[in-house]
UniProtKB/TrEMBL annotation:
Residues 25-243 form the Nucleoside phosphorylase domain. Its EC number is 3.2.2.16. It comes from Salvia divinorum (Maria pastora). Keywords: Glycosidase, Hydrolase. SUPFAM superfamilies: Purine and uridine phosphorylases. The keyword Hydrolase applies. GO terms for molecular function: methylthioadenosine nucleosidase activity. This is Mutanase. PANTHER family: 5'-METHYLTHIOADENOSINE NUCLEOSIDASE, 5'-METHYLTHIOADENOSINE/S-ADENOSYLHOMOCYSTEINE NUCLEOSIDASE 1.
Length: 263
């Protein structure tokens, strides 16, 4: 039997939660800069009485927007270095703990990504990921190789993609902002249009705990362009975040009053 909540199977699964209106959305956002405008837009408040273990840097904002309870969680700042805890390790832990504590109907992983112009991505584009996979988990042993890549279809949302006119593409995830030759080959094999540092890890947790996940990724840098990635990323981060948050708001407006099976 196909697993529920993945690809088209979720909408067809007959599971009750796929047919009742979505009332609880969890945003997982890696960087504070990406999250802040959305926190303001949805008028969310930081929750000091953390549902998370004592001492973790994870931050939660919550509130009600239209008919939905919204939580935005961020991995927060590294306790030693003070920078955002980007990457798959923090994202996985945060996703697991947040699902356990908040029991969301739907997760939205919103964030920035590198885009490939050869696959039609430009700065400021906002993509909905159709598939996710890893590009830095090389295990050259039969079957372990497939496990490492961890390719999976995302929760299918054809109505959302059409209504909001979002670009749709495959997302490849790794723990580096830059791209070595081995990663590049894997990204090509994954047929990815966009590249991030959290998506496939959050998809894995969603799959484990049977929660559908949408991936909304805004392009800050052109990976196959001429500019150094880190420079282009920092240069475009604030402007592109505005596009991301606008798209995220439209997504929530579209979701409001609908069930997962209507997306
Ligand atoms: N986030 C934004 N740009 C990125 C890139 N080039 N690689 C991974 N994550 C990113």
């Amino acid at each position: 039997m196909a697993p529920p909540h993945h690809g088209k199977a979720a909408a067809d699964s007959g599971n009750d939660s796929t047919h009742r209106p979505i009332s609880n959305i969890l945003f997982i956002i890696a960087m504070q800069t990406e999250a802040s405008p959305l926190v303001n837009k949805f008028e969310l408040a930081e929750e000091p009485d953390s549902v998370f273990p004592k001492g973790v840097p994870w931050v939660r904002y919550s509130g009600k927007y239209k008919d939905v309870n919204i939580n935005i969680v961020c991995p927060g700042k590294d306790t030693t270095l003070g920078v955002d805890c980007v990457g798959t390790v923090s994202a996985s832990l945060l996703a697991y703990a947040s699902i356990q504590a908040l029991q969301p109907d739907l997760i939205i992983n919103a964030g920035t990504a590198g885009g490939f112009k050869a696959k039609g991505a430009s700065i400021g584009d906002v993509f909905l990921a159709s598939d996710v996979a890893f590009h830095d988990r090389r295990i050259p042993i039969p079957v372990f190789d497939l496990y490492g890549v961890g390719c999976r279809k995302t929760f299918s949302t054809p109505n959302l993609a059409k209504e909001l006119n979002l670009k749709v593409g495959k997302l490849s995830t790794g723990d580096s902002l830059d791209m070595c030759a081995e990663d590049e080959a894997a990204i090509l094999a994954n047929d990815a249009t966009i590249k991030d540092m959290e998506g496939a890890a959050i998809a894995y947790v969603g799959h484990l705990l049977n929660v559908p996940v949408l991936f909304l990724k805004a392009v800050t840098d052109v990976v196959d362009g001429d500019k150094p990635t880190s420079e282009e990323f920092l240069q475009n981060l604030n402007a592109v975040t505005i596009a991301l948050d606008l798209a995220a708001t439209k997504v929530v407006d579209f979701i409001n009053g609908k069930s997962c099976s209507e997306l």
